[in-house]
Write a structure and sequence with these properties.
Elements lengths: L2 H11 L4 H24 L10 H8 L18 H17 L19
């Protein structure tokens, strides 16, 4: 399920009530964490799979990655990092035990979890 469908589902289930949306999202997150904790710590878990392309690249510097992906990094401007810091400070006041990435390394998912 895509993120927007999940969020739409939370909103519908909570009848648009922000407090209920937060509770439903928290329960969904906890269920997901429990599910993967059980899988990752289970006796049948085979371990982390080896990335064959990364291994090939490490063993042969001339190896070309056939996956055709593109990764872009963009550093936020000072006014954006200041805004992120202000938002993080406000969130920290509401949830003191929550930790955040430094503003320079923050991403949108930091504000969603």
């Amino acid at each position: 399920m895509g993120l927007s469908k999940a969020i739409d589902g939370f909103i519908a289930k909570a009848n648009g009530d922000p407090v209920q949306i937060a509770k439903i999202a928290a329960q969904n997150r906890q269920n997901r964490h429990d599910k993967f904790r059980k899988i990752l710590l289970g006796p049948d878990y085979p371990g982390v799979p080896i990335d064959e392309i990364l291994t090939a690249r490490l063993n042969d510097p001339d190896y070309l990655d056939p996956r055709n992906n593109l990764c872009l990094f963009a550093w936020p401007s000072k006014n954006v990092t200041d805004l992120i810091l202000r938002i993080q400070q406000e969130l920290k006041a509401l949830a003191p035990s929550r930790s955040f990435n430094p503003p320079m390394f923050a991403c949108i998912s930091d504000l969603c979890t």
